[in-house]
C-alpha cells in the first residue's frame, strides 16, 4: 500500500501541465527518431543530454523516459514497413511483421506492435512500482566489494552477449574503460593517458563520447553507404489501424508470453532487449509448429506480438534496475545514468530517500508515456512513416549540426569539437567492423564506479584481495556470471553447428 501512496504522489507531480508537455515531447521525439533508419532512443538521448541541463531534473528524466519508450515504438514502424529495424531490438519484429505488411496487412501489423508494446510496458511499469523500492532496500546491503562485483558482472555479461564475437565485445569494453581513465587521478594526482595535453587533464567528457559514438559516428556510417541503401517508403501504411476480435484472440497469448519473457531481462546486463525479443519469437515459432496449420513464414501475428511485448517489458524493468541498483543494462540506460550523475544524483538505494519526488514522478510518467504512445501510434502510424521521405543528406546534416552545438554548449572549447570528431571516427570504424557499442558506453559509465569500489574495498581490507569473494552477494553475482557465460557459449556453439549442417 505504501508504494501505491507514493505512486499517487508521483502522479500528482507528473500530471502538472509542464511535465505532461515533457512526456508528450519525449514520446514524439522518441517515436520520430525510432522511425528514421539507423537512429534510435540511444542517439536521441545522447543528442538531448547536453541540451537539458537548463531543465528541472524531474522534467528532463520524464522526457528521457518518453524518448526511451518512444524509440521502441518507432523502431517497430521501421521494421514492419521497410524491413529495416532501427535498432537490434526490432530485428525479431521484421520476420513476421514485414510479411504481414507485404500481404496487405501493414495497419494490422502496426496495431499489433503498438498494443504489444503498450501491454509489455504497462505490466513492466506496474512491476517496477513494487519491485524498485524492494531492490533499493536490498542494494543498501552493497558495499565496495559488492559494487565491484556488480560492475564486473555488467562488463563481462554485456561484452560476451551483445556480439557474435566475444573478442569484439571485450575490445569495446576496454576502449570504454580507457576513455574513463583519461585525466588526473583524483586520489593519487597522477596524470593518466592525457599525453601531456592540458585540455585532457580533466578527462574526456561523457557527453562528448556519447554524442560522438552514438550520433556522429552513425552519421559517418550512413554517409559511407548512402548510395547503396534504398530510400523511400516501400509499403503503404494506410488502412484499418485496429485489430479484429479474431486477431486480438490470436495475439493475446503471445503478448502475455512475450511480456513474461521480457520482464526478467530488464535486470540482467545482457545488452538490452535484443535477447528477450529473439527468445520470445523462437518460443512462438516452436508453439506454431505444433498447430495443424502453421502460420510462421506467412505473416504470423503471434511472431510480431511476442517480440514487441518482450522488448517494452525489458525496457520498463531496465528503468527499475537503473533507479534501484544504478545498473545500466543497455546503451540508452547507460546514458541516462550519466545524466543522473550530471545532475549530481546517483541511482541506487539513496536516490529513493534523497529525491523521492523525482523517482515517483518518473515512475508515474512510465504509465503516462505508454498511454500517450498508444494514442499517437495507433491512428497516426501512416504519418510517422512519412518521415522516411526526408532526404538523408538533409536529415544527417541537421544531426551533425546538433552534435557540434550540443558539445560546444557544454564546454565552450574548440578542442572538444576536435575530440568529438576523432571519437566519432572510432565509432564509425566500430560500426564498419561489427564491434558493439553498448559495452563501450557501459565501460565508460561504470568504469569509475568499478575503480573506486576496488580501491575502497582494498583499503578497508588492508590490501587483502579475498575481500572480493567474501560474502554472499559477490559470490551469487559471480555465480550468475558463470551461468550467463556458459549459456552464451552453448548458444554460440549450437548456432555454429547449425550453420555447418
UniProtKB/TrEMBL annotation:
Q: Name one Pfam family in it.
A: TctA
- Answer yes or no on keyword Membrane: yes
- Which keywords, in A-to-Z order, does the entry hold? Membrane, Transmembrane, Transmembrane helix
Task: Locate the coiled-coil region(s) and give their ranges.
Answer: none
- What InterPro entries does the annotation carry? DUF112_TM (IPR002823)
Please list the residue ranges annotated as the DUF112 domain: 20-442
Lineage top rank: taxon: Bacteria
Q: Does the keyword Membrane apply?
A: yes
Segments traversing the membrane: 6-25, 32-53, 59-81, 109-136, 142-162, 169-188, 200-223, 321-340, 360-380, 387-407, 413-430, 437-454, 466-489
> What PANTHER family does the database record attribute to this sequence?
TRICARBOXYLIC TRANSPORT PROTEIN
Q: What is this protein called?
A: DUF112 domain-containing protein
Species the sequence originates in: Kocuria dechangensis
